[in-house]
Amino acid sequence: MSKPDLDPSDFASALAPLGEATTLPARAYTDASIYDREVERLFRGEWLCAARIEQVPEPGDFLSLDLLGDRLVVVRDREGAIRVLSRVCRHRAAELVNGSGNTRSFQCPYHLWTYGLDGRLVGAPHMDAVPGFDPAKCSLPEIRSEIWEGFVFVNLDGRAEPLAPRLAPLGERLAGYRMGELVAEETATFDSPFNWKVLVDNFMEAYHHIATHADTLEPILPAKRSHVTDDEGPYSVLVMPTNETGEAVLPRQSLPGLSDDQQPGLVAVAVFPFHLFAPGPRTMAWYQLLPETVDRFTLRIYDCVPEDMGAEERAQSHELLRVIHGQDIDACEAVMAGLSSGRFERGPLALLEKSIWQFNRWWCERMLPGD
Fold first, then answer.
1. pLDDT tens digits, 314-360
2. pTM of the shown model
3. Does residue 246 have a pLDDT over 80?
4. What is the pLDDT of residue 252?
5. What's the pLDDT band for 244 if we cut at 50, 70, 90?
6. What is the chain's mean pLDDT, rounded?
7. Which of 5, 135, 185, 285 is the right S-S partner for 278, CB 3.0 to 4.6 Å?
8. CATH architecture observed for domain 49-148
9. Are 116 and 122 in contact (CB under 8 A)?
10. Domain ranges of the chain
């Protein structure tokens, strides 16, 4: 892996005070060597969201996931604990399972090696004839994981600081949304031909409502009413109050206990590097990013809803998410085309883009040399 030539002076304007700051340089979005550094420092070294706990509600329930080349399986074991394991057989590297379902064990389709839901090797045909073979040394690797507000996070290199203390203030602020009680329903999957940060930037600001979402979000969540909170954690919080029209769409009484600036309205949260979710009075959108290359990732959008929500209301909520992201796709592809043109270097940030400024400072702290 080639090392990127990152000169801190090239990023100084991104670290300037808000009101003077710019975007990251274009090459931060287009340079494959910078992306390789992101994989090492930001993706494998930080906490990434792998699943929701309600996706594996019963013992034996499992969900496969490909994350940065790692073949993983999220499973609820017989004691009810959620584990994240490698789903690659320890014998000859065949994948044990794909998709989702319920199982008593994971059995390799190649040579029938069998693993318990805790990853222990419990069966290996004819291996008893191999001198010194020790099944205890052939368990499936378990990936470090934590659960926060119903989300299952993983740390691929196993060295990140614990997640819960870092997100404790955020959890307290969002407690009224009862995110852990919602049920994730996959709404759409998109092959996204642009850099992952383009979508993160887009998700974190409401400034683009005035154009991109002029006929959808802007009439009920006006950009000029949005604001970003002052946070020092590894996250950014965008608060989008409604106007009078929006109060009819996002009713105040849905979730008692929310603060005045949260209800009615939406909150868009980015837990860095790219865990994106937006809780509202009734539902929560969750955007799961699965990076692949510097200019491509898979996006899975989930609509997290109350269990008692009716079918018609669910369908309407799902469709709104699809429409909103359809508008965002056009904007993100236009941004990536401009970043790749060779004619754009960096641009000034608006005060309404404070969340991008926060993210860029976090990015620079971890990506630039001198550590």
1. 999 999 999 999 999 999 999 999 999 999 999 999 999 999 999 99
2. 0.93
3. no
4. 44
5. low
6. 93
7. 285
8. 3-layer Sandwich (2.102)
9. yes
10. 8-45+178-367, 49-148
What pLDDT, on the 0 to 100 scale, is given for residue 144?
Answer: 98
- Give the integer Cα–Cα distance in Å for 344 and 326: 25
pLDDT in tens, 104-123: 999 999 999 999 999 999 99
Determine contact, residues 115/105, Cβ cutoff 8 Å. Answer: yes
pLDDT value at 260 more than 70: no
CATH superfamily to which 8-45+178-367 belongs: Naphthalene 1,2-dioxygenase Alpha Subunit; Chain A, domain 1 (3.90.380.10)
Structure tokens at 76: 């609820």
